[in-house]
Fold these 2 entries.
Entry 1:
Amino acid sequence: MVEMATEQITELSPSEWFMRNRNIAGFDNAARALYTALRELVENGLDACETSKALPEVIVSLKREQEDKRDPTVYVLRVEDHGVGVAADDVPTLFGKVLTGTKMALKQHRGHFGLGGKMAFLYGQVTTQSPIRIITCRINSRKVAIFSLKINIQRNEPQILERKVIPVSKFLQTQKASPVTTIDKKKRKDSSKKTSKKEPVWHGTITELSLMGDWQRSKGKILEYFKKTAIIVPYANLTFETPDGEVYRYERATESLPEPPEEILPHPHGVDTETLAQMIKVSKSTTLSDFLMDNFHRVGEKTAEDFLKFAELNGKKNPKKLSREEMVKLMESMEKYDKFLPPDPKCLSPIGEEILETGIKKELSPAFVTAVTRSPSVYSGHAFVVEVGLAYGGQIPLGMSIYRFSNRIPLLYDEGSDVTSKVVRELDWRRYHISPDRPIAIFIHLASTKIPYKTVGKEYIAEVDEIKREIDLGLKECARRLSIWLSKKERSEYVAKRMTLLKDYYAFIASTLERSISRKVDISKLFGNNKSNGIATATAQEEGGESVVDEETVVEKVAATSEKGRT
Amino acid sequence: MVEMATEQITELSPSEWFMRNRNIAGFDNAARALYTALRELVENGLDACETSKALPEVIVSLKREQEDKRDPTVYVLRVEDHGVGVAADDVPTLFGKVLTGTKMALKQHRGHFGLGGKMAFLYGQVTTQSPIRIITCRINSRKVAIFSLKINIQRNEPQILERKVIPVSKFLQTQKASPVTTIDKKKRKDSSKKTSKKEPVWHGTITELSLMGDWQRSKGKILEYFKKTAIIVPYANLTFETPDGEVYRYERATESLPEPPEEILPHPHGVDTETLAQMIKVSKSTTLSDFLMDNFHRVGEKTAEDFLKFAELNGKKNPKKLSREEMVKLMESMEKYDKFLPPDPKCLSPIGEEILETGIKKELSPAFVTAVTRSPSVYSGHAFVVEVGLAYGGQIPLGMSIYRFSNRIPLLYDEGSDVTSKVVRELDWRRYHISPDRPIAIFIHLASTKIPYKTVGKEYIAEVDEIKREIDLGLKECARRLSIWLSKKERSEYVAKRMTLLKDYYAFIASTLERSISRKVDISKLFGNNKSNGIATATAQEEGGESVVDEETVVEKVAATSEKGRT
């Protein structure tokens, strides 16, 4: 800043600034940029589907612009979702301008900075000079809007090169878009009424852009991204066609969708004076007390009264007449007052234990899986929920692997810096008789209205004490369950082994008995299908088979007897 | 983005966006924000001083706005530098608007994003509603400009509340600013001519802002920041007055200033088509070949010709008439062509081995110190130099500590993720007979026109292969030197120990000799100040003292003899 005093001062538009500093958003080089662009568009697609409460369907294809070109080269990325779609008039602002965002209301989103998708478009434009193509149709509309646009980077404004609107039927004839053939009738009765069964339906958004990429160097991360996304959204259909013509298809394994998040008012904790000033400006409240109740999450009459007493502010005062000192006092007190109710977790949408377990089973086929959704908690005024999964054995490779997710996004970079890795490292696994060289996979999902990412590229989560604690507790519960399962498994293996021995004893005893009683003793009946019953009868000598003694007990008794025999 | 389709779309100004996402720039909470704000302003102050080629002087004070207030509370931060100052007309744009930057020319700066200082102002404003005060005087001016301003956050525009210009003399009477009394005459003959010796001189910039802070929780980091800054800029005077009235003063230990960096043209490697299009638009060149030579760093006729052949582009073509495909081809070829000359290191300003060693000695008083400035190198078209220092013993605490710097900024957070930590961890210290539990301090300074930070908060450096390699080589050279010093030290300790033994032998032999030759033998002369000579003479029995045999040899011989005696 000051160092530029003797130089020429240039003002940058937000688009320019972000392009110059694109490495902080994950667009460092052709390999990383290809991965980041794809991921940002897939996440926007999933968000668009979940907003419409439909089971997500996202179709991705990546093609070389010219075949036989060596990396890095120009790729065409096409992402199609069957989500809510975008109103034609909103397209230029939402796709062609950096720093457009939602208003103050809070709810859980994949997108966090309102930036990712647009960074992908900008990156595509600066590396290929090509416009982006947007094709979109709102969920109950019959018209498809088709745009070709660029971003005027110096002015941070959309520049529309082409705009046309055509009927859905005509669009489906000319395009290779996949029609939405199956409509979930339970969830969308209204839309199914309007549509005759024979006519193909399509709604959603297709984004197509050219960008400089390096498929060879990003292939691994991109495939890992799809596999991990399939775990965390097992209710989605994902299709990915690679530049080499391979098609990866991740089919949904469940039709249950997590409850969508609701918007809530801001929590008093963490609000600054500038936001307060803006809120007061548009508020119709004439007293400070009313202002607090109308504009903040879970602030009722009693809370407002108690808080104002704590802050030493007059609740009857018109908020528009607060002095600078009073504004600062208000903000400071909001920060320090610890009796505000925590945020309502309805603004969050954890995926739930059952769906998480389904996702893990589907992609990893373990021998054992368990999941825990913790109760909602709060850090700096932001609600959050931690979900932990633990899988063991089966097709899981040896060693401990960690799968990190936040707001249903897999996090693939900087694992070592993430709060999760720290918790996993610090946990005393020996207490649970779990050795880290066994086939173990750990899954952590953090859902929050504000994920404390350390970077714009959404690589990893900062170490926040409250979050760390929840991960720790969730992980311990899972570890405890695995430990019980493992000891049962060991036990049953032990029992099976002893049973084999026992059969040999019985055979020997039977053969000696045969000689003394001079009749055939058939022990094969004792070890039939209903083993426990058989054994219980044979040993306990009780009538009616009522007192069923199971294999374990038999083995223990025999073991105890043979121990005694030895001493 | 797409997820906002059914919600109200809001466009954010860059100021608003950065305020909402201030955690990515290091303004997470009152403690971190206080540290970051202070550091950003100190760094701007140092840059302003170095631009004027003067020995830097930066004076910082931090006071509570109201005494007896518990943290977090409002602090007043005042940073004064004796640098170049800012022209009055530039003040509103440079201080009151986010995303103002320099033009395309490249040189090494502390500031990297053109953002840090302004984030501090914005944070101060949103937490206290107070304006910032800027007092500035250009280096050869006699007029001081005084501003009070706010940032209109919705419009990202400066809002001037007060502006006045007064003579320097009057300003010094009314203000508590420190006059610049000592002018470095060698470096600034011109300005000293203009100034009569009796009149006090003042130039530079004072920035004063109110902000919500938490001194208790940030004190440690802030003091660490000053101590580490004093190491990397040992030619600066730094003064810091804490809210508790303590004054920390870091005096300069050297008057030599590193050579300042020069601006260079952009390197062809890493330029995108958008930048190319902009350059072509303003260029007066009528052929592609001329355009390349005029606008790119170290591209002469031969290079241009060879490159154009490689790119299969016609050098005689008017650059304004390139098609989209040709632009992409140009960019792609610039990326792939590996025969461009590397960037000229004159755009860099490493501090140099001597200054680095001075800084380390001054702040840490080690028993041993060494430093290496590596040769300039290149990553993705950006020039960089790695400097490594290694200190041992003295007042350095036990264990290995790492001091990281980039463009003369100490990096205090996320050490574990930094490329430096990785190199230190991976180095095989045993090869150098250095045990990590000894008192060791490692210093790494990376100077570059583009530091690959992973975060806007400038916490740590990404793992770039070329940089990693240079750090590794520098560290190995330092480790080798320490290893030699350590073995010499061990050797001399060993020698000293043997000498004590030897004296005992001599005393014994002398006493037996005394009896057989019946006269006093004075061995004290043999072990006088000039020990080696004495011993050499006493054992080798050669004349003229020419063949001086040193203590080590004596010890070895005696040792060898006594070994033989034992067998």
Entry 2:
Amino acid sequence: MNRKNSLKHKLYTIIFEAETPAGKAFDVVLLVLILSSVLVVSLESVAGLRHDYLPYFISLEWGFTLLFTIEYLLRIYATPKPIKYIFSFFGLVDLLSIIPTYLSLLIIGSQYLLVVRVLRLLRVARIFKLTRFINEGQQLSSALRASVTKIIVFISTVLTLVVIIGSVMYIIEGEASGFTSIPTSIYWAIVTLTTVGYGDIAPATALGQILASFVMIMGYGIIAVPTGIVTVELSKSAREQATTRVCANCHQEGHPLQANYCYNCGYELPDQKS
Amino acid sequence: MNRKNSLKHKLYTIIFEAETPAGKAFDVVLLVLILSSVLVVSLESVAGLRHDYLPYFISLEWGFTLLFTIEYLLRIYATPKPIKYIFSFFGLVDLLSIIPTYLSLLIIGSQYLLVVRVLRLLRVARIFKLTRFINEGQQLSSALRASVTKIIVFISTVLTLVVIIGSVMYIIEGEASGFTSIPTSIYWAIVTLTTVGYGDIAPATALGQILASFVMIMGYGIIAVPTGIVTVELSKSAREQATTRVCANCHQEGHPLQANYCYNCGYELPDQKS
Amino acid sequence: MNRKNSLKHKLYTIIFEAETPAGKAFDVVLLVLILSSVLVVSLESVAGLRHDYLPYFISLEWGFTLLFTIEYLLRIYATPKPIKYIFSFFGLVDLLSIIPTYLSLLIIGSQYLLVVRVLRLLRVARIFKLTRFINEGQQLSSALRASVTKIIVFISTVLTLVVIIGSVMYIIEGEASGFTSIPTSIYWAIVTLTTVGYGDIAPATALGQILASFVMIMGYGIIAVPTGIVTVELSKSAREQATTRVCANCHQEGHPLQANYCYNCGYELPDQKS
Amino acid sequence: MNRKNSLKHKLYTIIFEAETPAGKAFDVVLLVLILSSVLVVSLESVAGLRHDYLPYFISLEWGFTLLFTIEYLLRIYATPKPIKYIFSFFGLVDLLSIIPTYLSLLIIGSQYLLVVRVLRLLRVARIFKLTRFINEGQQLSSALRASVTKIIVFISTVLTLVVIIGSVMYIIEGEASGFTSIPTSIYWAIVTLTTVGYGDIAPATALGQILASFVMIMGYGIIAVPTGIVTVELSKSAREQATTRVCANCHQEGHPLQANYCYNCGYELPDQKS
């Protein structure tokens, strides 16, 4: 029992952690396998290559899937809380990374869903000891999260706008220029407002082009809003990061550079420059 | 008389407010009706669906319109100031949401204007108790309003530019490449400067491509201006929000929201929440 | 002599200034004439309209040109320094606004250059008494001027990049996909880096699409640079505007909000909040 | 021996420096030669011109290459540390600027690689005595370098996104709309997320257009991130440049460049320029 537990613990250290040499080696192998398997799935979808090398692709795919299945089962075995692991984000990604191959026996084409394996790279990112990268990522995502209500308000406004613009363009342009229905026209409005501009649908009448010009110039201003929101949040978090003076009395952080006294307890702060 | 008034008041509470359970239920039903009716109008415009299900679409449309008409009349009845309501923003939107159906008896195609109903969602937004969202929306729109003169100057400059660029391109490219007239060329200039770039009209001569390259690189700088304006305004309003507390002792401004003591003189700050 | 001078002065007040009722009326008439004449030139270029209404267009054009010629001669007569006026920016624009019509007798099509008249609107902008607008415009253009060296460095980098990218794409893609020469490929690189993306030329080979993907993701970062430059300059000028405290001793402006003493002469500043 | 050394030194001053009149003249000649040779390579690739003037192009190319080869050999001769020069950035660029012509005897088309000569302009930039430009360039590139981890995190996120989006679109749209393989679909996802939008590949099914709309609106937010990062870094470096003076009496930081006295305690500040 004790021996089994120690094996379990050893496995856990290798599979889930990256501090030991064995754990590091495991992660490097996993990284290579994930990248190779995504590459194989991508290349299989190229008609010319599929025609010539289909048997090889299928063998490789099943090989990767078997390896990942074994890894998945070992993870369930090694973790002390299997249920929690299975329903965690990484547990679901690990499962989704193997299901499509088995599913492809029933549904042709489902193997292309295997690219979801690319999400597993997030797990392997640990091996780079990229705490600095993770910090930056958290800073970015916290900046985005801080502005989430602003972004929801913004996207609601944009969606209301494109529904109205799309419908008006449908009435003005009609089916001759490709505005075949209101949903299609709404799609055109999104393509235009975001300045993507495929050109598969484009206004052909004078009135439609005038309205489109208004939409584009409006899009100028609209594209500025998310940029402004994100910039302000990022600059806020950068400023907070810059002011890391700590009060010796109450350990409160984040004092402005010009502060003389702790704003939390009123204790005098040490001089910045001495 | 009193009973009638109390009925009127009850109706008012249900229709115009969202605090009572009945008022909340009314708003939820309204939300569903509005979204469904906009969806029905959109789907009706798809040729395949219109061909197969036209009678259903027409029935649904008239159903929604009758419900909204009853709601409109009840609103006029319930409000203490009917005239003010009718000519308010929401009153006009409510009216515009029912007129196109009646108009479609006379003018074919006018029912597509019913998508204006999407604006009614603004009214129903209340049910989410989204005061936080409304605050954010006000912050965004006040940032935009604060920079309205800058934006007018900017748009005037852009319009002057596109008129001149469009005319020069019309002379250089001519009708062979799709620059069929000065207004069309101005439309092309707007499509290019805003980086939408449909490609339905594109320069084909060497000289035209050189000029277009200049326009695009200029567009780089030009698209930066509204972004800069909005960012500065947003950051100003964010800073103002953060720094409106003043020390009663030394009049130092700019205390963080969580501060208890002035960082300049150490004096206790008044409590933020009282 | 005196009478002639007083007539000259009166003319000067009407034509060059906008404070008197006559001066204002003159500017309003001029505004309408300029907008109408640009509209006529634009509409004349539309093939359908030119075919039907050519005589009217030609009459209107000559009418406007004669009026503007008279105005130009009166301006030369009325101004105390005619030479300075003729070679000033506005003097040259005024001249360029009438020459193309006369030129069109010799060179067909040159009348389209008349749209340069749109620049004359700058002169008429005065009548709106838009000092606030002019201030904002100056703020914008001073922000752009302050960052002119940064922008030159940036554009040189972009130009070096597009020459190299364009040549490599020419070698990779060749003439089959529309990359017919190095200048054309450089044009494509500019279209792509600026995210305009017409799609008249697009990579078709796998290698070309991989390189194009790199260019586009690089373009992400590159388009951020001018925006960053302009935002920083605008925010700097906004901050300077915000700090308009004046020293009572030396009249130095621009003291920070938290300042206690004038940074120029050391004199104590009046308390901000009392 | 001494005489030889003095010749070597004189050559070094002329070729590597730009302070003497001879050195300046050398750089101006070099600038003209580089620009002309890049122009010749570009024009040679235009089919019409190549057909008519091929012998002239070849002569000019060999002429430029011989001149640059002589220059390269002189540089190796004149520099005191030839090995260090050969493997320096500029040494490699100088070599790459002459190799393609010799290579074109063996491999047809390799002469187009000569555009790499455009990089030599970096060297000649000195003659403008553009220390101010170099400062600005350093400021820009240090701002970019400071945010390099943030940008790597960002690009990794974007690459993960486009792999998943591309695969899903491949399954939804299939080969009919141009999504012929997963790599092609990933290319489409990059074209769309970066708002380039060629339109050579565009979704045609309703489901594909809905997904594409999500991608574009997401792209709105995503394009805001690099802009935010660069803006914050640029504004940080601008702020640091402005505020590095410290009061010797009260250690207050953040004095404007033109300040003579500390704004906090009124103490005289040390002179900025000594």
